[in-house]
Amino acid sequence: MNLTAEIALAHRLADAARAEILPHFRRVDVERKEDASPVTEADRAAEEAMRRILKAEVPQDGVHGEEFGVEEGRSGRQWVLDPIDGTAGFIAGRPIFGTLIALLVDGWPVLGVIDQPVLQERWLGVAGQPTTLNGKSVTTRRCRELSEATIATTGPHYFDNHQGEHFMALAARTDHRRMVMGGDCYNYAMLATGQLDIVCEAGLKLHDWAALVPVVEGAGGMMCDWNGEPLGPGAGEHVLALGDPARLEDVVEALACGH
Fold it and tell me: Which is nearest to 258 in space by CA: 172, 156, 152, 150?
């Protein structure tokens, strides 16, 4: 699959989102969505800018965005946009949020971008190609034992009690003294760059994880659900990222031990 044109388009989308987001960083006014989650003018402006480009250049493709919903296409392809993944961190002035851009073909992610505008870091993952950070290849790290793994998650409040018990069962078998809380999509970027070993989350939607799959897998890692199944059409809310796929059986077994 030749995605040269789509890669160039994804970069233009990320550039457009950056231009809308940066003027609002540490100058943000916060609103609340119907579900009480926070949203800012930057979220909306960044998604609108990306949608304008897609409508002009690939009107046959579908679009799924966090802020403005789904526009059906007729090509079997869908662009999935999360203008600011980690809005809470963005509001707090922490430069570990990111713009997520994915291209799905028949429901499967084949291209993903994680863009951090403030630090000017951009990860690009493409099916069949090595993941890059600002044009240079990156790789995950090996993890010999689960007890040596560094685990990350965005926060305990994203788990219900049942999910939290399973997460803590897994965390207890890792080097939990180095557990990382917070980070949203930036955790997956750090895993792809060899800084973390496991990211475990619940409550994620398509726009939260679609762009992450090509980035993590192109760096030698693995993404799946809590049962080890691939993330594709109809995938649920439970998401795992592993820097070393050899630890999959250990991680799934540990997760299953929660009560």
Answer: 172
